[in-house]
Amino acid sequence: MLCSPFQCDRCWFINLTNREPRDQSASDLRLSAYIHRVNLDILWSRESSTVEKTMNLFNRAREFANTMGIQVNMDSTISAWPLGDGVGFSEAVVMLHYSLDL
């Protein structure tokens, strides 16, 4: 969550289509597969050193906020996201489709 946005596959499906996925729909299954792949790419596209550095900065920022008596909600990304796509996830799904050259 600190390096890039992450939501579960089902939540992304709902955010992109404004409805639940249908198990018997070939197009829903295809979109779900793309969503799953993009989610995996989000998780694994970061160098471990980048993730470690970001986590260290996050911890230092929390400590500084506490020391200064600043009330900052640095865990706000854990809550559910609003409907829609404000981070370019739908574009990532489309680009993934064309990168597979099907």
Description of the molecule:
With 102 residues, this protein is mainly alpha-helical. The chain has one domain (9-99). The relative contact order is 0.18. The protein has helices at 9-17, 26-44, 48-68, 89-99. 59% of the residues lie in helices and 0% in strands. The protein is elongated.
Rounded Rg: 17 Å
pLDDT < 50 runs, ≥5 residues = none
Quaternary state, please?
Answer: single chain
Average pLDDT number: 80
From the N-terminal CA to the C-terminal CA, the straight-line distance is 31 Å
Number of strands: 0
Give the number of helices: 4
What is the overall silhouette?
elongated
Order of helices and strands: HHHH
Query: How many separate domains make up the residues?
Result: 1
- Beta content comes to under 5%
How would a textbook summarize the main sheet? none
Helix content: 55-70%
Query: Structural class of the secondary structure composition?
Result: mainly alpha
List the helices and strands and how they pair.
Elements lengths: L8 H9 L8 H19 L3 H21 L20 H11 L3
